[in-house]
TrEMBL record, chains A, B:
GO molecular function: acyltransferase activity
Official protein name in the record: Phosphate propanoyltransferase
Domain of life: Bacteria
Pathway the protein takes part in: Polyol metabolism; 1,2-propanediol degradation
Catalytic activities: propanoyl-CoA + phosphate = propanoyl phosphate + CoA
Named cofactor requirement(s): Zn(2+)
Enzyme class: transferase
Family to which this protein belongs: Belongs to the PduL family.
Organism: Paenibacillus aestuarii
Length: 190, 190
């Protein structure tokens, strides 16, 4: 059985808490949707911010909505060198002990104490897909990506939920190293 | 038999022709060595230039010496997006039909018509190493990199010469995707 999954290459982005949206965009501000993402209910917002580190900054960093309990910034290792920080590779939501950055919006700025990660590559499975293929939540998978620069990613984390749609998430370093872009297909080897 | 090779992660850099060194640094200028590289006779120069594309620029781009017959710029895919150009993945020296960039030195500037590539990952073997391990020039290898983000690179080109020292060359996207740095070890699988 060959199991193919679509690839989504994530550029640097930020998830904001409601409190930080208030500071950056004004009290009570509501993010607006630029386009829907692969995961149900998730969207790329029209709104963007700047992120500033000790050695560099990026402007026009896309906000992903809706608001979350804690602000989290996901960047590539390449971005991290340019910014001058050293975030760990982590699963989304695990931000304890990570570095921060300054975030600048049109109405204010926030000095984050933590929240910057390099996202660990993972595949979202709907529960039915996972059951059909015998894949368990948190299982580590090997995935072949047949782009211009073929490679096999090991330690790809399976994340299973009824809230998820099938999609493999890698960052721009990983996408570029494989020569793939969003919408390409990858094959789960085992 | 386990075959291990050292990894070298190449940041963006430029090789210059003598004619371009004359324009960028002044007639008859001689590059000076900052440090030796893994390949015999090759060095990172103290001298640096700026490279400028339609969408962005990088300053302090390291020159690798000695001078070559044709100027060549090696960047990552991430760099290419930032500069606003779309160079192909190529072996060093194969620059026909590639895009150019503007190069700025302290004494002048050059508008390259071609010469920018994303370097195809490869391993330099001394002839004796290749013979011992049964590896032929141009052979495609699979190489496992056990960094923080383990992966297997396919289509790694073997380059065999008596002028070479054992070293695997990948770019920063590939190094970051694997979580490895220069001096780490990789394993040739087949």
């Amino acid at each position: 059985m060959t199991i193919m999954v679509p690839v989504g290459v994530s550029a640097r982005h930020i998830h904001l808490s409601l409190a930080h949206i208030d500071i950056l965009f004004g009290a009570g501000y509501q993010l607006t949707s630029f386009r829907d993402l692969s995961q149900p209910g998730q969207y790329a917002a029209n709104e963007m911010v700047s992120i500033v580190g000790p050695k560099g900054r990026f402007d026009k960093v896309r906000i992903l909505g809706p608001a979350r309990g804690a602000t989290q910034i996901e960047i590539s290792r390449t971005d991290a060198f340019a910014l001058g920080i050293n975030p760990p590779v982590r699963e989304s939501g695990h931000i304890e002990g990570t570095p921060g950055l300054k975030v600048i919006g049109p109405q204010g700025e926030v000095e984050l104490e933590q929240g910057v990660i390099v996202a660990a590559r993972h595949i979202h499975f709907h529960t039915k897909d996972a059951e059909q293929w015998g894949i368990a939540d948190k299982q580590m998978l090997r995935v072949k990506v047949n782009g211009e620069r073929p490679l096999i990613f090991e330690n790809v984390i399976a994340r299973v939920s009824e809230q998820y749609a099938l999609d493999m998430h890698i960052d721009t370093d990983e996408g570029n190293a494989a020569g793939v872009k969003t919408g390409d297909q990858a094959e789960i080897l085992d």
